Amino acid sequence: MTLYYSFLNYNLLNPASISWAGWFNYQYFYTDPAFFDAIWNTLALVLGVLAITVIGGIAIALLIDKPIFGQGIVRILIISPFFVMPPVAALIWKNMIMHPSYGVFADISRALGLQPVDWFAQYPLTSIIIIVAWQWLPFATLILLTALQSLDGEQMEAAEMDGAGAVSRFIHLTLPHMARAITVVVLIQTIFLLGIYAEILVTTNGGPGNASTNLTYLIYRAARLNFDIGGAAAGGIIAVILANIVAFFLMRAVGKNLD
Amino acid sequence: MGRITLEAVTKRFGDVEVIPPLNLDINDGEFVVFVGPSGCGKSTLLRLIAGLEDTSGGRILIDGKDATDTPPAKRGLAMVFQSYALYPHMSVRKNIAFPMRMAGVPQDEQDRRITSAAKALNLTDYLDRKPGQLSGGQRQRVAIGRAIVREPAAFLFDEPLSNLDAALRVGMRLEISELHNRLKTTMIYVTHDQVEAMTMADKIVVLRAGHIEQVGSPMELYRAPKNLFVAGFIGSPRMNLIDGAAAAEYGAHTIGIRPEHIAVSPDHGKWRGRVGVSEHLGSDTFFYVEDTGLADTITVRAGGNIDLHHGDTVFLTPDDAQMHRFDATGARVA
Ligand SMILES: Nc1ncnc2c1ncn2[C@@H]1O[C@H](COP(=O)(O)OP(=O)(O)OP(=O)(O)O)[C@@H](O)[C@H]1O
Ligand SMILES: [Mg+2]
């Protein structure tokens, strides 16, 4: 169906004049300067969030794996962002944390005597990466913590006796032990991150310009704002193909960890 | 060199004193076995020596130098764990190489030591496998290989054979003894299997609730157990312990006589009883004699071809020269 629509000239503002468009929609998408921006932004968004959540998740998991006072509460606090709906989370960040006049960041900047940063205007993509990473960090932490807790204590002790310091133990034992969990986190998150759009909608609307438009949002914009069903369908097909390519390389790269 | 001395070493977990002040001397090249019932602190003591647990008091000397606060890696000791603790994502070769890699041993020296350890332990064909693809016995050998290549001052073993089946256990027991004969390195070996203790040790340390009950060669412990606990723990089947009038006759509160030191006869003897269960092992037969009025059952060892059946009346005569006598506190009376 989508495939069929993608070859049509079909605009909801003018539904009477449906005609065969051939490859025009694809060509249109392909030549749209926003398209390449969107691909680039999608990649930056996915990779940025993955990097932050995996590295941050490992760090937090290492911290809360140690028995500390109030461990249960700390764990619940860390998990809680995951239960917040994406648009709500984005709104909280937009209006309470990153807002240039009432945001927490702005307050901190002012307290330090600095000029508050207008996050969404100046660093739109970075802001979105931060918001999305905040949402996914608990998921990553949880999975990685589980992996960490299944690490055999005697192995660590053996390595300690074998002369491996804390860093060597982390590199040679902890990381390989967690490889599988990291793979799972990367794969699952990639699937969801390719489709991020609510956060963009409620914060930057893809702007300024196309600075924070990713593929999903571009398709959404084509369909909803321009009422161009044919163009949106073509974008959707392209997105699916791209997602498959990414997934393929991802599986190739990390799949060997899942044997 | 691997001389280890414990001076008043103490270990507490919170308020619980698991090891009260304990003194022990382990000489260079000795094969020392720690035995004792479960929970008596064998593993804890070994881990204190290894440095994996901090002492709550006292000193640990290795070759005369105070090592109490030395980190585990610097003590020059190698440990073989009950779970083998192999690194699952590394090949056998990498596992064995790991301690040398950490110590920065040159590559050609690493290869040389790996080759010789693999040959000694029959691992040559498995060097490129992962631990998950090995049998229990092979994994155990890899763990030993990883310990050997470090050329440690002493080996520490914590129940290394308890995950193996009986036949393999006997084989590995011999291999470890042979390794000790070849390397002449100090070995400290924890087990609760008194057969392992008897067959492997130069010196047995019997522990109970963190206390050393007796230290001595296997035959010393067998011939002259210092108290009832050691008497009951060393020897298989257990020594017969008899209280009351029969003991008073020997001027003791309790007497002990081993199954192999009781003569069996169908018609005459000192004690009279009835044959209960008998176990025929081929070379030996063990009878569990009931209704003697001395103890619940008296275990007796007889030759393989004695003809006695369940319910038969039997007469037992202890060999008085082999009688162990204990006073009311359980200590041996000379
Ligand atoms: N980390 C710990 N915290 C608190 N108590 C401990 C700890 N480790 C051991 N213990 C206690 O110390 C005592 C001795 O334990 P240990 O493991 O040394 O016994 P063991 O002789 O090795 O027994 P087994 O033959 O069952 O292995 C036990 O009562 C145990 O409960
Ligand atoms: Mg133990």
* Ligand identities: adenosine-5'-triphosphate, magnesium ion
* Fourth-tier CATH superfamily name of chain A: MetI-like
CATH class of chain A: Mainly Alpha
Q: Please, what is the oligomeric state?
A: heterodimer
* Radius of gyration of chain A from CA coordinates: 22 Å
What is the N-to-C order of secondary-structure elements of chain B (H for helix, E for strand)?
EEEHEEEHHHEHEHEEHHEHEEEEEEE
Q: Report helical residue fraction of chain A.
A: over 70%
Determine the mean pLDDT of chain A.
76
* Strand-pairing-aware structural class of chain A: mainly alpha
User: What characteristic shape of chain B results from the CA principal axes?
Assistant: globular
Stretches of chain B where pLDDT is under 50 for at least 5 consecutive residues are none
Characterization of this structure:
- The complex is a heterodimer of chains A (259) and B (334).
- In chain A, 71% of the residues lie in helices and 2% in strands.
- Chain A has 259 residues and is an all-alpha fold.
- Chain A has one domain: MetI-like fold (Orthogonal Bundle).
- Chain A has a two-stranded antiparallel sheet with strand order 1-2.
- Chain A is globular.
- The two termini of chain A are 36 Å apart.
- The mean pLDDT of chain A is 76.
- With 334 residues, chain B is of the alpha+beta class.
- Chain B has 9 helices and 18 strands.
- A 6-stranded mixed beta sheet of chain B has the order 6-7-8-3-9-10, sandwiched between helices.
- In chain B, strand 7, helix 5 and strand 8 form a beta-alpha-beta unit.
- In chain B, helix 2 packs across helix 3 and helix 2 runs parallel beside helix 4.
- The longest helix of chain B is centred in the middle third of the chain and has 18 residues.
- The mean pLDDT of chain B is 90.
- The chains are: A mainly alpha (259), B alpha+beta (334).
- At the A-B interface, helix 9 and helix 10 of A face strand 6 and helix 2 of B.
- Bound molecules: adenosine-5'-triphosphate and magnesium ion (MG).
- Adenosine-5'-triphosphate binds next to helix 1 of chain B.
